[in-house]
Write a structure and sequence with these properties.
This protein is an alpha/beta fold. The protein contains 21 helices and 19 strands. The radius of gyration is 24 Å and the shape is globular. The termini are far apart.
Length: 550
């Protein structure tokens, strides 16, 4: 039989796992592996920074609910992946990172780019391992994919020393026995007494709310959640990472009265999301101190380490547990019993929405960020994938731009990594090429990975990038923040030089036309950028996420 290099075995193993796209930067010792992947029919998306490769993979995985693959050369190539992998870890996304490393036979001799890559990756992955055996490469690759998707998803890392990648072995010696083994989705159910307790608690509640997160997406539980909401008649809210699991124009979505709902709720169901700072740890005063807390999560550690007392804690798969609950609601939980509660929230919601539009319709110059968000909201397709990245524009966008499809809203998540916007948009477009993809960027965050416009143009990844150009990092009405000022950079000129269609906008009445012209160019196969000068004094007033402020 023929001999294969470790690189060729790796490529074949990745193809067996169903890999169609590869995010990478070329370099040693991965060159032969990258070449072999291309020969196997895997689409190569070469980027301008390894961090962006990990970010693209993260968006790709979120939208397709499966592992993605990013690849980097040894030394700084792998270390450049770390921020992206750390973001995926905190966000629970199954990115499979593959890195080259120095020959293991020469470890400890200070060879070229020698550093403990495995040690650096372990704290920000679910699993990280080095490959020492050519015969076991298919096994190790399959294990990586299995671990990435098991339980609570997350990134994994495989380290390939250069001597493993270039050595050869006879095909007969390679163990292909589990290569491409399907990934079973374990769906642990709740104990019957916990379901009974949950349904009983719901039957006694007067003001219940539901809070969900990304776990609904990974469990593919959007249909079950909607059935639960509709049957029980309970208002629902999502964390930023779980938006769109139910369309946000659903009659039981009261987005503008979130704070009041949380303060007054006497029962809070938390499904598939962490009780972290995003929801104020579900703690008083933001939440009712006397509320009954029901929590459903596939990760037992999330239940056992809850920051406040849990009345009913269920370790289980969201899809399976919601199905159990739905089967027990009839005749026990009457949606009419929550009518007064729903009317209370609905009236306040209507009152807020009936108030004058204010900044969302302002003709002020410089343009208020809320006017920018309003124009984007009115322009985008209902099933558009919206990526928002920055500080002020992220906070304004969180308040003002809805999402209607599961997983079609992306942002930096709990880790708060700036610069994810454009790479997320590119990964999303590769995952779902028929969807409109709009990236709304702050100018500071855009600058971190702006050169990925080159990646977009070279690979024909036709996204729309809208930049809120407020001249620097965050709002600065008093002009006191050190290092804040970046100037009003003409990113549109930069985009044009890279081959994009681009416009610069200073008047609010010009935004709509610029977006429409940009979309026309996208339809013709181009990448488009609209650079919009916004008010540097506009400060988004949102829930404080930390003890400090930027």
């Amino acid at each position: 039989m023929a001999e294969l290099t470790g690189s060729e075995i790796l490529a074949k193993a990745l193809r067996n796992e169903g890999v169609n796209d590869l995010f990478f930067i070329m370099g040693g010792p991965m060159l032969l592996a990258e070449e072999s992947c291309i020969k196997e029919g895997i689409r190569p998306i070469d980027v301008r920074h390894e961090q962006a490769a990990a970010f693209m993979g993260q968006a790709y995985s979120r939208l397709l609910n499966k592992p993605s693959v990013c690849m980097a050369a040894s030394g700084p190539g792998v270390t450049n992946l770390i921020t992206g992998i750390a973001n995926a870890y905190i966000d629970c996304v199954p990115v499979v990172a593959v890195g080259g490393s120095s020959p293991f036979k020469a470890y400890g001799r200070q060879v070229f780019q020698e550093i403990d890559q495995l040690g650096m990756m372990k704290p920000c992955t679910k699993w990280a391992e080095r490959v020492y055996s050519l015969a076991r490469i298919p096994e190790m690759v399959n294990v990586a994919f299995q671990k990435a998707m098991a339980g609570k998803p997350g990134p994994v890392y495989l380290d390939f020393p250069g001597d493993i990648l270039y050595e050869k072995i006879d095909e007969s010696e390679i163990d292909w026995s589990i290569s491409g083994r399907s990934i079973p989705r374990a769906r642990p159910h709740a104990a019957p007494e916990l379901i009974s307790g949950t349904v009983e608690a719901l039957s006694k509640a007067k003001k219940p709310v539901i809070i969900t997160g990304g776990g609904i997406l990974w469990s593919d539980a959007a249909d079950e959640l909607r059935e639960f909401v509709d049957k029980a008649g309970i208002p629902f809210y999502t964390t930023p990472q779980g938006r769109g699991v139910i369309p946000e124009d659903h009659p039981l979505s009261y987005m503008t009265v979130r704070s009041a709902a949380f303060r007054e709720a006497d029962l809070i169901m938390i499904i598939g999301t962490r009780m972290n700072y995003i929801i104020g740890h579900a703690a008083p005063p933001r939440f009712n101190k006397d509320a009954t807390i029901i929590r459903i999560d596939i990760d037992e550690d999330e239940i056992s380490t809850s920051p406040r007392k849990i009345d009913i804690g269920i370790v289980g798969d969201a899809k399976a547990v919601l199905h159990q609950i739905n089967s027990r609601l009839d005749g026990v939980v009457n949606k009419d019993s929550f009518l007064e509660w729903r009317n209370r929230l609905s009236d306040e919601e209507a009152s807020k929405r009936s108030r004058p539009g204010g900044n969302s319709v302002s003709d002020a110059v410089p343009i208020h960020p809320l006017r920018l968000c309003e124009e984007v909201k009115n322009f985008m397709d209902r099933d558009a994938i919206l990526v928002v990245d920055g500080q002020e524009i992220l906070n304004y966008g969180r308040q003002s731009m809805p999402t209607f499809e599961p997983g079609h809203r992306l942002n930096s998540g709990p880790f708060g990594t700036m610069g994810v916007g454009l790479p997320f948009g590119l990964g999303a477009k590769i995952a779902k090429p028929d969807c409109q993809v709009i990236v709304v960027h702050g100018d500071g965050s855009f600058g971190l990975n702006a050169m990925e416009l080159d990646t977009a143009v070279r690979h024909g990844i036709n996204v729309l990038v809208v930049i809120s150009l407020n001249g620097g990092w965050t709002a600065d009405p008093d002009g006191t923040k050190p290092g804040r000022d970046l100037g009003y950079t003409r990113y549109d000129k930069m985009a044009e030089a890279l081959g994009c269609y681009a416009e610069y906008v200073e008047q609010p009445g010009e935004i709509k036309g610029a977006l429409e012209r940009a979309q026309e160019q996208i339809n013709k196969g181009r990448v488009a950028v609209v650079n919009i000068k916004t008010d540097h004094t506009a400060r988004a007033g949102t829930q404080a996420f930390a003890q400090y402020s930027t």
